[in-house]
UniProtKB/TrEMBL annotation:
Binding site for Zn(2+): 16, 18, 196, 277
Keywords: Hydrolase, Metal-binding, Nucleotide metabolism, Zinc
EC number(s) per entry: 3.5.4.2
Active site: 199 (proton donor)
Function: Catalyzes the hydrolytic deamination of adenine to hypoxanthine. Plays an important role in the purine salvage pathway and in nitrogen catabolism.
Origin: domain of life: Bacteria
Protein name: Adenine deaminase
């Protein structure tokens, strides 16, 4: 089988995906019209044309603005269902999906609106296609720790739907150490923990995520290459990195895909995985990201198989379910 076909055919997991970042311009346009929300765009093509970013913050500004069209339960159902349909198309059999409650609660849209919408789509996709989903509730790090603690408390009725907590948004100036208490509380409640670290931020933020937040995975983490002892630590612990190649190019973390370090990390035996991050903003879903590694980094078949196996190893699936796929 050629590599393109194999990328498609292999059952995969996706572990780093912001559901709000899967809001396609056409859906944004339709929901804006449904709710009478005015957008600063004249057409769907105009929305797409605006997606040129210089860094993480310039992207986040548009991402939060776009999320404002999500207002009722059915909007969140449609959003989740559209992503899970793409999972089915790409042979993604298990997804661990981040959502940002504060992006919605700060606009008066509560857990009782988005959680039932997500749940209905997750159940439909499970029934139709057998896809399994875990949800990761991510705290916005540009807000205070108190706001994150309030969010954890507001989620109480929905804890059974949530597998893990995460940390995202503007990394520089908002180090993991700012969130020690809320992560300790989440761990005590039995949640797994992940955090974005070493995307734009320095290796020190990855150390903090490991030592202060006690995370089970690092989201991005590509700046670990700047610190040899950190690389050794990640390798020794088999600590997974959920790497997002097309995201990193769009946000100028690397100048070009040919400069991306994912395959060199893989060849150094780090547990790296491939993910789409915010597919509608960064120009590709999961298989597009794998294909970019083939086109620009000459990924070979054994590297592909290792990356796909890592996606199961790094997941929060129970061991027997992981072993079923490995
Ligand atoms: C994000 Cl790429 C990225 N980094 C940090 N926070 C985010 N939220 C959505 N996408
Ligand atoms: Zn992310």
């Amino acid at each position: 089988m050629n590599l393109i076909k194999l990328i498609h055919a292999l059952p995969k997991t996706e572990l780093h995906l912001h559901i709000e970042g899967s809001l396609e311009p056409a859906m944004m346009w339709n929901l804006a019209s449904k709710h009478g929300v005015s957008l600063p765009y004249d057409s769907i093509a105009d929305i797409e044309a605006a997606y040129q970013f210089e860094d993480l913050q310039s992207f986040l500004d548009l991402y939060y603005q776009g999320a404002d069209v999500l207002r009722d339960e059915d909007d969140f159902y449609q959003l989740m269902m559209a992503y899970l349909t793409r999972c089915h198309d790409d042979n993604v059999v298990h997804a661990e999906i981040m959502f940002d409650p504060q992006t919605h609660t700060s606009r008066g849209v509560g857990f009782d609106v988005f959680m039932p919408g997500f749940e209905r789509a997750i159940q439909d996709a499970k029934q139709k296609w057998g896809i399994s989903v875990y949800l990761i509730m991510s705290f916005l790090r540009h807000l205070s720790e108190k706001d994150a603690i309030d969010t954890l408390n507001q989620a109480r009725a929905y804890y059974p739907m949530i597998k893990a907590v995460g940390l995202d948004s503007s990394e520089l100036g908002n180090p993991p150490e700012k969130f020690v208490k809320v992560f300790a509380a989440a761990r005590a409640l039995g949640f797994k923990c992940v955090a974005h670290a070493g995307e734009e931020g320095p290796p020190e933020y990855i150390w903090q995520a490991l030592d202060l937040l006690h995370v089970d995975r690092i989201d991005h983490g590509v700046r670990c290459v700047e610190d040899a002892s950190l690389m050794q630590r990640l390798k020794d612990e088999g600590m997974p990195l959920t790497v997002c190649p097309q995201s990193n190019i769009k946000l100028c973390v690397f100048d070009h895909m040919k400069d991306h370090n994912i395959l060199s990390l893989l060849d150094d035996d780090l547990c790296v995985t491939v993910n789409a991050d915010d597919p509608s903003y960064f120009g590709g879903y999961l298989n597009d990201n794998y294909r970019a590694l083939m086109t620009h980094l000459s990924m070979n078949e054994s590297q592909l198989v290792k990356l796909v196996k890592n996606s199961f190893v790094a997941s929060f699936l129970p061991t027997d379910e992981k072993n079923h796929w490995l």
